Amino acid sequence: MLADFHLLRPLWLLALLPAALLWWLLRTRRQDLSPWQQLIANHLQPIVLISQQLQRRQPWAMPLLALCWLLSVLALTGPSWQKLPQPALTIKKATVLIMDMSLSMRATDMTPDRLTQQRFKALDFVEQLREGDLALVSYAADAFVISPLTPIITTSDCKSQPFGLSLCQRKALMCWPHCN
Questions:
Q1: Over the stretch 38-70, which tens digit does the pLDDT of each residue have?
Q2: Neighbours of 165 (CB within 10 A)
Protein backbone atom coordinates (compact mmCIF):
# COMPACT_ATOMS: atom_id res chain seq x y z
CA MET A 1 0.00 0.00 0.00
CA LEU A 2 2.83 2.38 0.80
CA ALA A 3 4.44 1.45 -2.53
CA ASP A 4 1.47 3.06 -4.34
CA PHE A 5 2.08 6.41 -2.62
CA HIS A 6 3.64 9.06 -4.85
CA LEU A 7 3.67 12.83 -5.36
CA LEU A 8 1.99 14.37 -8.40
CA ARG A 9 4.14 17.53 -8.30
CA PRO A 10 7.40 16.61 -6.50
CA LEU A 11 9.20 19.78 -7.60
CA TRP A 12 7.27 21.67 -4.92
CA LEU A 13 9.61 20.03 -2.40
CA LEU A 14 12.22 22.56 -3.54
CA ALA A 15 10.16 25.19 -1.69
CA LEU A 16 11.45 23.63 1.53
CA LEU A 17 14.97 24.87 0.77
CA PRO A 18 14.21 28.58 1.37
CA ALA A 19 12.37 27.66 4.56
CA ALA A 20 15.33 25.63 5.81
CA LEU A 21 17.72 28.45 4.93
CA LEU A 22 15.54 31.02 6.69
CA TRP A 23 15.25 28.77 9.74
CA TRP A 24 19.04 28.32 9.89
CA LEU A 25 19.67 32.07 9.50
CA LEU A 26 17.23 32.96 12.25
CA ARG A 27 18.65 30.34 14.61
CA THR A 28 22.22 31.53 14.10
CA ARG A 29 21.13 35.15 14.41
CA ARG A 30 19.39 34.47 17.72
CA GLN A 31 22.46 32.76 19.14
CA ASP A 32 24.84 35.56 18.16
CA LEU A 33 24.94 38.66 20.25
CA SER A 34 23.65 41.67 18.47
CA PRO A 35 26.28 44.37 17.88
CA TRP A 36 23.83 46.78 19.45
CA GLN A 37 24.13 45.00 22.78
CA GLN A 38 27.66 46.27 23.10
CA LEU A 39 26.64 49.88 22.39
CA ILE A 40 23.36 50.20 24.31
CA ALA A 41 23.30 50.44 28.06
CA ASN A 42 22.16 47.28 29.86
CA HIS A 43 19.12 48.93 31.49
CA LEU A 44 17.86 50.15 28.03
CA GLN A 45 18.39 46.91 26.08
CA PRO A 46 15.04 45.25 27.00
CA ILE A 47 13.18 48.33 25.80
CA VAL A 48 15.17 49.06 22.63
CA LEU A 49 15.96 45.56 21.40
CA ILE A 50 12.58 44.21 20.37
CA SER A 51 13.75 40.82 19.08
CA GLN A 52 14.52 39.55 22.57
CA GLN A 53 11.07 40.60 23.78
CA LEU A 54 9.37 38.84 20.89
CA GLN A 55 11.41 35.73 21.50
CA ARG A 56 10.35 35.68 25.13
CA ARG A 57 6.66 36.44 24.44
CA GLN A 58 6.13 34.09 21.46
CA PRO A 59 8.59 31.20 21.65
CA TRP A 60 6.42 29.02 19.37
CA ALA A 61 6.02 31.57 16.57
CA MET A 62 8.94 30.37 14.43
CA PRO A 63 8.31 26.61 14.87
CA LEU A 64 4.62 27.19 14.10
CA LEU A 65 5.51 29.14 10.97
CA ALA A 66 7.90 26.38 9.88
CA LEU A 67 5.24 23.73 10.49
CA CYS A 68 2.66 25.67 8.43
CA TRP A 69 5.22 26.10 5.63
CA LEU A 70 6.00 22.37 5.67
CA LEU A 71 2.33 21.35 5.59
CA SER A 72 1.59 23.81 2.78
CA VAL A 73 4.47 22.53 0.66
CA LEU A 74 3.44 18.92 1.27
CA ALA A 75 -0.12 19.76 0.21
CA LEU A 76 1.15 21.47 -2.95
CA THR A 77 3.16 18.38 -3.94
CA GLY A 78 -0.11 16.51 -4.44
CA PRO A 79 0.27 13.30 -2.45
CA SER A 80 -1.76 10.55 -4.07
CA TRP A 81 -2.33 6.81 -3.99
CA GLN A 82 -3.37 6.69 -7.67
CA LYS A 83 -1.30 7.67 -10.68
CA LEU A 84 -2.82 9.98 -13.24
CA PRO A 85 -2.28 9.22 -16.93
CA GLN A 86 0.50 11.31 -18.39
CA PRO A 87 -0.90 13.58 -21.11
CA ALA A 88 2.37 13.44 -23.04
CA LEU A 89 1.94 9.72 -23.61
CA THR A 90 -1.61 9.74 -24.95
CA ILE A 91 -2.70 10.87 -28.37
CA LYS A 92 -5.73 13.10 -28.21
CA LYS A 93 -7.07 12.84 -31.72
CA ALA A 94 -10.70 12.77 -32.64
CA THR A 95 -12.12 10.66 -35.45
CA VAL A 96 -15.63 11.10 -36.79
CA LEU A 97 -16.94 8.20 -38.83
CA ILE A 98 -19.70 9.37 -41.20
CA MET A 99 -21.92 6.77 -42.80
CA ASP A 100 -24.31 7.14 -45.73
CA MET A 101 -27.70 5.63 -44.84
CA SER A 102 -29.61 6.75 -47.93
CA LEU A 103 -31.79 4.38 -49.94
CA SER A 104 -29.10 4.08 -52.62
CA MET A 105 -27.02 2.11 -50.10
CA ARG A 106 -29.68 -0.62 -50.07
CA ALA A 107 -29.21 -1.32 -53.76
CA THR A 108 -28.80 -5.03 -54.48
CA ASP A 109 -26.36 -4.69 -57.38
CA MET A 110 -23.58 -6.16 -55.13
CA THR A 111 -23.51 -9.03 -52.71
CA PRO A 112 -23.81 -8.24 -49.83
CA ASP A 113 -25.55 -4.92 -50.32
CA ARG A 114 -23.65 -1.64 -50.10
CA LEU A 115 -24.86 -0.87 -46.58
CA THR A 116 -23.52 -4.16 -45.24
CA GLN A 117 -20.19 -3.64 -47.00
CA GLN A 118 -20.02 -0.14 -45.58
CA ARG A 119 -20.67 -1.51 -42.11
CA PHE A 120 -17.89 -4.09 -42.44
CA LYS A 121 -15.48 -1.46 -43.71
CA ALA A 122 -16.40 0.76 -40.77
CA LEU A 123 -15.76 -2.10 -38.35
CA ASP A 124 -12.37 -2.76 -39.97
CA PHE A 125 -11.51 0.93 -39.81
CA VAL A 126 -12.45 1.16 -36.14
CA GLU A 127 -10.42 -1.97 -35.40
CA GLN A 128 -7.31 -0.22 -36.73
CA LEU A 129 -7.81 2.81 -34.49
CA ARG A 130 -5.70 2.50 -31.35
CA GLU A 131 -6.15 5.79 -29.47
CA GLY A 132 -8.27 8.88 -29.45
CA ASP A 133 -11.97 9.58 -29.53
CA LEU A 134 -14.49 8.21 -31.99
CA ALA A 135 -17.86 9.61 -33.01
CA LEU A 136 -20.41 7.98 -35.29
CA VAL A 137 -22.64 10.07 -37.55
CA SER A 138 -25.12 8.77 -40.10
CA TYR A 139 -26.94 10.70 -42.77
CA ALA A 140 -29.62 10.20 -45.34
CA ALA A 141 -31.61 13.38 -45.85
CA ASP A 142 -30.42 14.76 -42.50
CA ALA A 143 -27.42 13.94 -40.35
CA PHE A 144 -27.81 12.26 -36.96
CA VAL A 145 -25.22 11.75 -34.25
CA ILE A 146 -25.38 8.08 -33.33
CA SER A 147 -22.53 8.24 -30.83
CA PRO A 148 -20.78 11.41 -29.61
CA LEU A 149 -17.02 11.60 -29.22
CA THR A 150 -16.07 8.91 -26.72
CA PRO A 151 -12.67 7.42 -25.94
CA ILE A 152 -11.71 4.17 -27.63
CA ILE A 153 -10.92 1.52 -25.03
CA THR A 154 -7.47 0.06 -25.66
CA THR A 155 -6.73 -1.87 -22.47
CA SER A 156 -6.25 -5.62 -22.61
CA ASP A 157 -8.83 -6.31 -19.88
CA CYS A 158 -11.65 -5.19 -22.20
CA LYS A 159 -11.47 -8.23 -24.48
CA SER A 160 -15.21 -8.78 -24.18
CA GLN A 161 -15.87 -5.63 -26.19
CA PRO A 162 -15.13 -6.15 -29.86
CA PHE A 163 -12.69 -3.66 -31.38
CA GLY A 164 -12.44 -1.69 -28.14
CA LEU A 165 -15.68 0.11 -28.80
CA SER A 166 -17.98 1.44 -26.14
CA LEU A 167 -21.40 -0.12 -25.76
CA CYS A 168 -23.09 2.79 -27.53
CA GLN A 169 -20.67 2.62 -30.46
CA ARG A 170 -21.04 -1.16 -30.82
CA LYS A 171 -24.84 -0.92 -30.88
CA ALA A 172 -24.64 1.92 -33.37
CA LEU A 173 -22.44 -0.08 -35.74
CA MET A 174 -24.60 -3.18 -35.46
CA CYS A 175 -27.95 -1.42 -35.98
CA TRP A 176 -26.98 0.64 -39.05
CA PRO A 177 -28.82 -1.49 -41.55
CA HIS A 178 -32.01 -0.89 -39.55
CA CYS A 179 -31.63 2.84 -39.00
CA ASN A 180 -33.72 3.99 -41.95
A1: 777 888 777 776 665 555 666 777 788 889 999
A2: 24
Distance CA 180, CA 177 (A): 7
- What's the confidence (pLDDT) of residue 3? 78
Closest to 55 measured CA to CA, from 75, 91, 79, 26: 26
Q: CA 10, CA 79: separation in Å to the nearest integer? A: 9
User: Between the CA of residue 22 and those of 15, 29, 109, 119, what are the distances in Å?
Assistant: 12, 10, 84, 69
What pLDDT score was predicted for residue 162? 43
| Claim: this prediction has a pTM higher than 0.85 | no
Contacts for 11-17: CB closer than 8 Å, 24+ residues apart: 12/73, 12/76, 12/77, 12/78, 13/73, 13/77, 15/69, 15/73, 15/76, 16/69, 16/70, 16/73
Look at residues 136, 138, 137 and name the one whose alpha carbon lies nearest to residue 101. Answer: 138
- Who has greater pLDDT, 31 or 3? 3
- Determine what percent of the chain falls in helix, strand and coil, rounding each to the nearest 5: 50, 15, 35
pLDDT for the residue 140: 87
Least Cα distance to 151 among 141, 164, 137 occurs for: 164
Q: Which helix (H) or strand (E) element contains residue 97? A: strand 94-100
